[in-house]
Amino acid sequence: MTVLVVGLNHKTADVEVRESIAFDSEKIRKGLTGLRSLQGVREAIILSTCNRVELYLHAESDANMVERIKKYISEFHGIPVEVLEGALYAHGGVDGVRHLFRVASSLDSMVVGEPQILGQLKASYDIGLKEQSSGIILNKLMKKAISVAKRVRTETKIAENAVSIGYAAVELAKKIFGDLGDKVFMLLGAGEMAELAARHLTGSGVKEVIVANRTYERGLALAVEFSGKAIEFDTFKKELEHSDIVICSTGARSYVLDFAEMEKIMKTRRQRPVFIIDISVPRNIDPKINDLDNVYLYDIDDLQGVVDANLNERLKESLKAEEIIDQEIDVFFDWMQSLDAVPTIVALRRAAEGIKNEELAKLYHKLGGLDEKDKQVIEQAMNSMINKMLHQPTTALKGNDEEKDVLIYAVRKLYGLNGK
Amino acid sequence: MILTFELALTSYFIATILAVLDLIKGSKATSRGMTVFAIAGFIIHTVNIILRLLISGHMPTASLHEAASFFTWSIVLVFFIIEYRYEVGLMGSFVLPVVFILMLSSSVLPRQIRPLPVILQNSWLWFHTILAFVGEAALTVACGAGIMYLIQERHVKSKKLDGLFHRLPSLMVLDDINYRLITIGFPLLTLAIITGALWSEAIWGTYWRWDPKEVWSLITWLFYAIVLHARLTAGWHGRRTAILSVAGFIAILFTFFGVNLLLKSFHGFV
Predict the structure, then answer these.
(1) Of A161, A305, A310, the CB nearest to B159
(2) In a designed cystine with A271, which of A67, A68, A300, B235 is the match (CB 3.0 to 4.6 A)?
(3) Which chain B residue has the Cα nearest residue A288?
(4) With an 8 Å Cβ cutoff, is B165 touching chain A?
(5) Do A306 and B234 touch (CB under 8 A)?
(6) Considering only residues 278 to 297 of chain A, which have any Cβ-Cβ distance to chain B shorter than 8 Å?
(7) Which CATH superfamily hosts domain A165-307?
């Protein structure tokens, strides 16, 4: 028996293939039932997100297992095996466990350190629990994966620092202003990227939103969406006197704001800091205004530079995360090994011997004055009792029962053999 | 008494080492250790000052050793208040080295308690020195916040958001701390100069004698007066205020040590 992972992700399959074998929650339920009816599959969990589809299994480690699973996937979705062949990967044993831990810790994600994957994994595990397709091994494995992910998150900086333009803008705004709750945000012009960044900023709770767009109606629509107010484009310089954060993307061919104008505005603002993000190409704001005190101007390349640096930082942190994962793999396999029959039988016998010796000592003390022969007789009686009591459990543990690991697990639990 | 001074000095030393480590490679352990040792140092230091007070019978700011020690104590006090009020990271890394250096200079100055001339023994000693040192302590911590501001501002302006960027507080908070401390330090300094003048009048019959100490105090005072004036009228703040508060601190140091060690001043310490 082994832990087995079969699946594909954004690195091995393009979006069309990923879509074609995606499981929605209904399909997951059906799939789980189907998987468990396959010969040699004991437990199963299905994870399906837009970037990966993976089956986690506890199954026989026979040579054809992987092929059977691949065939099952292809038949379930009605996709020829050949289409999937290049995309599907399979990891068994230590590699399988490592793969899951890396997925849970977001090391295998498209954006390393992104937080959603853990939630998605938990949801998949929940379905597995409800459908009772997850048993002792996968339960332990999933719980471990979740705790590994949390450890990675707290002990490394893998999830720190913004890795998208929008978040980078918010992060910078917070480092300039601290609290954004009393700040006025102006969106100058519209455009997909500008709107996205604006959404991040308004989402982080600015006090007021102003939208200035060349087409007033379009600006008004955006203002409604951000529950702010729309103004005529020509009046934006006046509004700049009390706006603290500006995102600019007007599509103008030349600068809409130059150095002298900004200098004057700063005087009227009484030098209160202003953070301007110019994401238009070509740039709409004279880059020289960054030289003014208390003016912080970032263009799209600057922000991209911040994002790239942060991503690099995350990759460095991921090395630390791999170390944590290595440690946790060892812990998991120690536990797996404890589920073998032989150590369990040994532990069970040892527990019984312990009790016997304790009781014998008490008994000898109580009776007093026993000679060696008496003692031997008593001990033999006890030994024989232990042997008879343990005979049946031992045979069952040694046997080839389908549910052997359940038995081992139960024995360990019932007799408290897990130490501590 | 000597033991308490050495213990306080040692605690500040360890706190400073941890503060520097915290700056280089921040971790919970270093910053927590720094706080523990700073608090321990402060408590022992307080005991030392009280002992000196009990033995000498006057405010222990009469000798240069005592004055430097009390100045250091005031800085740590202000630092704790700011830490408590703002909960910003890394402040200790910028303040504690100054604390340690001042305490160290106090330690090498003659420590014996000498009798204080009778004419100086009055409550002016209390008012004047406490106002002066607590005021200057506030301005010292303001300088620390100013340096932090300048570093953080450099990060944001140069668009290289590495190193300390993520760990330093926001520009707004640092500017706020800087300004708040100047608005506290400046009035105290003003009152210290006024009480000094009154004291001088009580002893020598004249308010102002253009003594180097008086002149340099006035220069320092003017510095901060300009900072506040520029802020209130032209809205100067941020980088310029930060630079001025660093320069102001240098003026304070000179007024305190330079005047006594390099120039001849009747504003002696015994």
Answers:
(1) A305
(2) B235
(3) B157
(4) yes
(5) no
(6) 290, 293-294, 296
(7) NAD(P)-binding Rossmann-like Domain (3.40.50.720)
d(CA B13, CA B34): 10
pLDDT in tens, B232-243: 888 888 899 999
CB contact under 8 Å between B171 and A161, yes or no, is no
Check if A154 contacts B (Cβ < 8 Å): no
Would you list the DSSP string of A165-203?
A: HHHHHHHHHHHHHS--TT-EEEEES--HHHHHHHHHHHH
Say whether B236 and A271 touch across the interface (CB within 8 A).
yes
The three-class DSSP label of residue A306 is helix
Per-domain boundaries in chain A: 2-160, 165-307, 348-414
> What pLDDT sits at residue A419?
57
Task: Give chain B positions within 8 Å (CB) of A309.
Answer: 160-162
Enumerate the active-site residues of A.
50
What is the spatial distance between Cα A36 and Cα A32, in angstroms, rounded to a whole number? 6
A255-283 pLDDT, tens digit each: 999 999 999 999 999 889 999 999 888 88
Beta strands in A10-120 (DSSP E): 41-48, 52-59, 89-92
* CATH fold of the domain at A2-160: Beta Polymerase; domain 2 (3.30.460)
Across the strands, what pairs with A297? A276
- ipTM for the complex shown: 0.86
Domain residue ranges of chain B, discontinuous segments joined by +: 2-262
Least confident of B47-51, B102-106, B159-163, B178-182: B159-163
